[in-house]
Amino acid sequence: MSKSDPERFRTEVELNELPEHTLLNVIRMPENEPMSPVRLIARRFGYALGLIIMVALVVYFDKDGYSEHLTFVDALYYSAVSLSTTGYGDITPVTQVARLINIIIVTPIRLAFVILLVGTTISVLTEESRKAWRIQRWRKKMRNHTVVIGYGTKGRSAVAALLADGVSPNEIVVVDTDPTALEMASNAGLVSVNGSATKSEVLKLAGVPKAKAVVVAPSSDDTAVLVTLTVRELSPHGWIVASVRESENQHLLEQSGADSVVISSETAGRMLGLATVTPSVVEMMEDLLSPGEGFSVAERPVGEDEVGANPRHLADIVLGVVRSSELYRIDSPEAETVEPGDRLLYVRRVFSDDVPNP
């Protein structure tokens, strides 16, 4: 087989290589609150009225250069007739200066006025160009963001936790194929990519190679394994957190490259069991896991005055010590003393006006 033969089987150009204007149905940028039609019409009417008054002032300033002596009302009349291209011809510029002013000033404003009259079509074209430009700018700047694959119940909860922890919405990218989920993500101020996360070209569009972390939360375990494999191939050093329904598939995700695996079915099962015996414990666990309210489990760097101290004796309720990316529980020998560079896992009281800790 010749070197050119494989190219014959490549029937599609990678999405990542396509120009931005072709990705308007794939990448969706969050929009500001849309303006009401009444306000849009009123704004355009105001622009048109402003142009008429502007031309009227220019004409009135040179009122002696026309076929008859003009009052300001005459100047307004001439401006309205001229800009609307009606052109009755009862008032015309006769001097060289007046004609030059019409060429340099009135004619360009007339064109702008006509554009306002056909503003709907122009608005559509401008809107698409603006969206393409925003996508282009976003693709150039995106890095160190978080990609959430799957915006179902688990994905939405993950995003809620990220937002509660101080992550900006424009630093989160959602990948899904469900139009409803993508609409919800956009309404939440998130960038969304429409496509299957099992395809590397879709993950490239979401910026996975430049992402700081990737949350894999699809609806099925086999999809989670395939997506994790693809993500790890594109991002050898990125942090991958994956969700799996059954514990027997945990090792598959770990072998596929997941740094952390959450088993949803077992976690839910434990909560159900606790709820039958000690419902108050479940209530407290829900409080700890719910972002933005009550208590929450957080992580922070140690202070200079805390180095060398026993974490049990600190003001915060410390649950563990993170050292060199390893978590040591509070009862382990490694967590007896706080060392420089450690981070503390502790229980934080959440208030409505709290600023998340770093």
Model description:
This protein is an alpha/beta fold and 358 residues long. The protein has three domains: 119 residues, Helix Hairpins (Orthogonal Bundle); 127 residues, Rossmann fold (3-Layer(aba) Sandwich), CATH 3.40.50.720; 58 residues, 2-Layer Sandwich (Alpha-Beta Plaits), CATH 3.30.70.1450. The protein is built from twelve helices and eleven strands. The chain has a seven-stranded mixed sheet with strand order 1-4-3-2-5-6-7, with helices on both faces. It has a four-stranded antiparallel sheet with strand order 8-11-9-10, covered by helices on one side. The longest helix has 25 residues. The N terminus and C terminus are likely disordered.
The overall pLDDT average reads 79
What is the CA-based Rg, rounded? Answer: 31 Å
Order of helices and strands: HEHHHHEHEHEHEHEHEHHEEEE
- Helical residues, percent: 40-55%
How would you sum up this structure in a few lines?
InterPro entries: K_chnl_dom (IPR013099), NAD(P)-bd_dom_sf (IPR036291), RCK_N (IPR003148), Trk_Ktr_HKT_K-transport (IPR050721). With 358 residues, the chain is an alpha/beta fold.
Q: What descriptive keywords fit this protein?
A:
single chain, 358 residues, alpha/beta, Helix Hairpins, Rossmann fold, Alpha-Beta Plaits, 3 domains, 11 strands, elongated, disordered C terminus, transmembrane, membrane
